Amino acid sequence: MSHKYELTIVLDTRGKEESIDKILGQIGKEIESEGARLEQIDQLGRKKFAYNPRKVDEGFYANFHFEAEPAAIEKVRNRLKLNGDVFLQHVLRKSA
Predict the structure, then answer these.
(1) Quick one: DSSP state of residue 56?
(2) Confidence band (pLDDT; 50, 70, 90) for 47?
(3) Which partner for 94 in 4, 16, 61, 63 could form a disulfide, CB atoms 3.0-4.6 Å apart?
């Protein structure tokens, strides 16, 4: 039984300003390759961090709304950990 999820990511875009749409498209394809059905991508824009984690001042925030089997979530998270553009990630299961 599939569930709806919201994935929030923060991209480290230092030196990659012009390719944000391309990076988000690639991440969307990675999510779909694990069997998820991508519904929407919300670009929330660039925001400064309250403190400097790992010497990064700001990041580009985006939300991915998708439907997937619970087993696919761990695969998606592992793929994003290997993606050098993804600075932070958080997956939230939406209530019905």
Answers:
(1) -
(2) very high
(3) 4
